[in-house]
Amino acid sequence: MSGSLTPMRPQPSEATFRVAVVGGGPSGFYAAEGLLRSALPIAVDMFDRLPTPFGLVRSGVAPDHPKLKQVAAVFDRIAHTPGFRYVGGVAIGEDVPLETLRASYHAVILATGAMVDRRMGVPGEGLAGSRSAGEFVGWYNGHPDYSHLRFDLSSERAVVVGHGNVALDVARILLKTADELRHTDIAEHALGALAESRIREVHVVGRRGPCETRFSPKELHEFSDLTSCEPALDEDDLAPHSFASPANAGPDTRAALGMLEAFARGPRTKPRRCVFRFHLDPIAIEGDGRVERAMFRRTRCGEGDAGAELVAIECGLLFSSIGRRSAPLAGAPYDEARGVHANIEGRVVAASAVVPGLYVCGWSKRGPEGTIGANRACSAGTVERVLADLASLAAPPLAAERLIAGAAPRSGSVVDYAAWKRIDAAEVERGRRAGKPREKFVTIGEMIDVGGRRADACCR
Amino acid sequence: MAYVVTDLCCGCRYTECVTVCPVECFHVDETMTYIDPDNCIDCGGCVPVCPVGAIQASYLLAPDKVSWIEINRARSAETPTIISKLPPLPTAEERRKALSA
Ligand SMILES: Cc1cc2nc3c(=O)[nH]c(=O)nc-3n(C[C@H](O)[C@H](O)[C@H](O)COP(=O)(O)OP(=O)(O)OC[C@H]3O[C@@H](n4cnc5c(N)ncnc54)[C@H](O)[C@@H]3O)c2cc1C
Ligand code: SF4
Ligand code: SF4
């Protein structure tokens, strides 16, 4: 029974359109929902390279944001819609070529997210102690690609380059006390390491000014409420009108600016600090064998002194958090400039000609922007295109059942939704004993063991 | 905490907000939308997409808007959910212009 998967539902009838969704994150689930809600007879198989579904809701969203993770209940409901099937532990492009997948379904929707961290491209980026935010986030969230990493938390100061919400997550997790994290679903190894951390100050550094950040007010607000840490600004970075709202600013921009302005005047009484730094462009990371300082050039616009002044920040750890792009997938044209699968409004295109039956949604369609729900509108748009095209698409020459049965993933097994529910229940039970909502399994081997479908159990 | 639709939405009802809510917790009546505070997961995604700035986090509400917390709770219990975009009310375009002027 190597790699076999018992169909959870009756085989779809011949009249049914078969659609494969590649990626079990929010956009993949919202695409499946749109397809299954439509009036057409459609069966959806969702593939993910991991045994566990939910993409960045599981491995990106910070452990101290439990309320957001309740969105998983919506995905769970979608997964129980008749016609839906989950095929976890199968990486398209590695375990199964995209071409074979396309030949087994009427249509394929790529929902592969943005797994690759952008690099700053400055000298010294490869030094020990220089990391990407994505590696740290994956580590504390127990993503099996990153759970083996080690971070040296023995210095007093860390630098995070980037002014988006991911940078705020990284800074907050570094600055919270172990007691503030203990009852979250943070991975056990990360909690242990962070409890020993000597980091007392994190500088969150951006190239632009306070009115040009991508911080959401909600995430900024959390810094005024931490047990042992308070937010601060550095006066040297500010100009007289740094906090003036641009004329067309929306409510979020105004709220974020107001909070940063309040941080600048806040008290200094707690032992840890998060310092928001502005108008600093990274030019090098320096140190003897490992990170000792980060070098920036001051870029204050409109002052005539841009580029004149160099600023050094001593630190033992540096994270770049300057964006992500989609991992290219063999067989899908890639848009280098945007860092996504090349597409026009969700239809994949090669040199502006539509590739029939191939679509894209979510972060791999429009880049890493917007909240979880933005993917709902995004996937709904792609599904509209699929529904419009389906009747004209050729019937697949190959059988999806054969493809699934023959998928030989790294782990030697595939995980269906019932197996994921067993993994889920086991994680929740482990968490209950530790006073946490969940204690994740952090290796694929453990997940597959618990899912109960390990085909090569004898050779462990 | 939850997010709250305020009276700026009245007579406008662009339903941009509804399309980005990950948990479908918007409700609607003839004049405006409401957020069900028990289902809202505080993602904040609906705030920037509302063309008239009608939605705000409850803790950021101006004093004269605080009463909308209770109105959202009460009206969302009495009205149907809305899961996709509605055609804007006939007065919408006018309202948007008036509010952005
Ligand atoms: C650190 C971080 C924190 C965030 N915090 C928040 C927050 O607080 N609030 C909020 O609203 N949003 C947050 N987001 C944004 C949110 O997570 C994204 O909007 C959303 O996850 C994007 O959905 P997606 O489906 O496009 O991609 P993803 O969630 O990345 O899902 C992609 C899926 O595809 C799978 N996959 C990739 N390649 C393949 C392949 N070749 N074969 C099979 N499967 C594959 C991956 O394993 C993954 O499961 C955060 C994002 C990050 C990075
Ligand atoms: S987008 Fe704004 S104005 Fe439109 S319905 Fe939603 S809250 Fe009301
Ligand atoms: S904050 Fe998020 S969950 Fe709450 S109503 Fe707005 S979009 Fe929906």
Automatic annotation (TrEMBL), chain A:
Record-listed FAD binding positions: S27, L56, I92, W363, G370, T371, I372
Protein name, as recorded: Ferredoxin--NADP+ reductase
GO molecular function: ferredoxin-NADP+ reductase activity
Domain FAD/NAD(P)-binding residue range list: 17-191
Pfam family of the protein (one): Pyr_redox_2
Positions with a binding annotation for NADP(+): H163, G164, N165, V166, R207, R208, E219, G370
Organism whose genome encodes this protein: Methylopila capsulata
Cofactor(s) needed: FAD
Leading EC class: oxidoreductase
InterPro entries: FAD/NAD-bd_sf, FAD/NAD-binding_dom, Ferredox_Rdtase, Ferredox_Rdtase_adrenod
The enzyme's E.C. designation: 1.18.1.2
UniProtKB/TrEMBL annotation, chain B:
Name of protein: Ferredoxin
Alphabetical keyword list: 4Fe-4S, Electron transport, Iron, Iron-sulfur, Metal-binding, Transport
Native source species: Methylopila capsulata
One Gene Ontology MF term: metal ion binding
Cofactor names: [3Fe-4S] cluster; [4Fe-4S] cluster
Presence of keyword 4Fe-4S: yes
Function: Ferredoxins are iron-sulfur proteins that transfer electrons in a wide variety of metabolic reactions.
All residue ranges annotated as the 4Fe-4S ferredoxin-type domain in the record: 1-30, 31-60
